[in-house]
Amino acid sequence: MKVFSKRGSGEQQQAFEIHDDLNEFIDSDVPPDEHPGGCVGYELPDRAGIMRGEPLRDDDEFVMTGPKIYVPHDFQQRGRALGLAGRSIIIGGTSKQPFTTEDFGRFLAKIAHSHAVAVHGLGAFVPFLTDAIRGIRPMYLSHYIGKIDPRVPLKDYNHLHVLEDGFVRSGNRQLLVVRVRLLAVDDYPAYEVVVGEKPLLNYLPRLAV
Questions:
Q1: Domain that holds residue 132
Q2: What is the pLDDT along the chain (209 residues), one digit of tens a residue?
Q3: Is the same domain home to 107 and 52?
Q4: Number of domains in the chain
Q5: Under a CB-based contact definition with an 8 Å cutoff, are residues 38 and 91 in contact?
Q6: How far apart, in whole angstroms, are the C-alpha atoms of residue 166 and residue 148?
Q7: In this structure, are 50 and 137 located in the same domain?
Q8: Three-state secondary structure call for residue 83
């Protein structure tokens, strides 16, 4: 793995800068366990619409806020150990692939749905997200995906990624909710994905062929 750094004001510099050209930076190879880490993340402004009692309607766009910078707890210590004190470090990266907020919503939908199927099995719940995963409109992304309940405190984890699931009662319905927290060890945001609901007794799953 590589670290890109350049001489600068270091800790005195509070503002973030955006650089399109890496020529002014010096790259050096670093073992993965010693890498300072750090990346960009995105947060969601609201809980899923279904969890707020909102009627089902397609969203014009899936809204998220960011990017926001996230780094490990020992980011500065790692940087100093590599002799980077007083330097600026690039966080994030570049991609030639187009990225939309809708892509991010579908990304979370795929993770949560796959986890729910792996844990509970096919037919254990009526799925809400299969059309969104296939890119079929309407996707209802903001109706089923949002930030976690602010009344539920986040735990401190030593795991890289965390997936948690459970049924939540909403009126007469039992919704299957998956909490997705990627890079949990570095306090990245958590998301609440409503993947489906507990089926009626006569429910038969529809399988794609």
A1: 101-197
A2: 566 667 664 444 445 677 777 787 888 888 888 888 888 889 999 999 999 999 998 766 799 998 888 888 888 898 889 888 878 777 765 566 677 899 999 999 999 999 999 999 998 999 999 999 999 999 999 999 999 988 877 777 788 899 999 999 998 899 999 999 998 888 899 999 999 999 876 555 655 54
A3: no
A4: 2
A5: yes
A6: 13
A7: no
A8: coil
